[in-house]
Task: structure prediction
Amino acid sequence: MNQLFDKKEKKVEYIELIYDLIFVYIIGRNNSLLHIIENGFVNRTAFLAYVLCTLAVVQIWNYTTFYINMFGRKGIRDHIFLFVNMYLMYFIGQSVQESFERYITQFHIAWGLILVNIALQYLIEMRNHKADVWNKDICKRMLLPFLFEAVLVFIGGFTGQTAGVILSALAILSGIVLTMLGRNKSPGGQVDFAHLTERAMLYVVFTFGEMIIALASYFNGDGSWDTGTVYFSLMAFLLVAGLFLIYGYVYDNLIDREGDYDGMSYMLIHIFIIFALNNITASLEFMREDEINLLAKMLFMICSLIVYFTFVFMLKGHAKCNCKPTNKLLLTLGVSTILFIVLMVAFRKIMAVNILVSVIYVYSVFIVIHGFYRGVKEKNNE
Result:
């Protein structure tokens, strides 16, 4: 049985990177929903659409990545199915705009067809593994959740706005729960965890790319020496760099990429890491917009950073045995977070101080993580 699971390490293929480029486009489209302002705050309907669209799109990427990880062969069939999904993703991206309610049916049809497309791939694999009970079982357990979610999505596209939102949320939630239950109960379908971690890292990098593009607005000036432009651009750049350093440090030094994990929880956590990074991108853009309410700016930045760090540290379940966070480390980070919130609230009317506090908080987290890992290394070398 061990020979059955003796797989060569899967490398990230160029077709996967090409596929990811469409998601870079979608990230930008989704973030545009947050710029629909009403009385100083993001329009409630637009924000709800942003949340659902972002989670749905990242979930699609997640599903595709899992299939390629387990059954991808770099063949013609894989390429065709990926390109079909890419084409359908354009309809999703085009639907994401200020008049989203007018395109909600188009959005759901494209979303549902993508789910059916992925389900068909598992169906084909199930037929190809008739004598292989292990892989046949995992195909069956992955196929049914996709079809169920697709049905909810299709129905949601032809109902009223409120019912459609509820069905969309249920579709996303059912996909998460049913696929996780299916993997937990299935005896087969071993994944290449190292490949999954690399794919997730690359998507995070692409998301940081969108953040870097958004950062360009901080460098806009009239060509003269403007200390305000220099200060805010420097702080924003340091903030983005610090967030990237933290994720990169965790990925390079703490994650057990050779571990025997099914990868489901790891990828689920990354859905929310990417979601948080999108929100941080919007938070940085909000700081430059006077029409945004000060309270909204502050809360969005606070919540986005806390969500990001919360899910980054939830990766501790995949850390190397000697690198799992201690209670002392978590307590230190908790105190830093509380202090961050207090200072942000205290200086909520001064954006120059707000962004400085955010930068200090991010680098304090990095220093704590770096110090913890260095201590682990020194202890192991004794």
Observations:
- Confidence is low (pLDDT under 50) at residues 1-6.
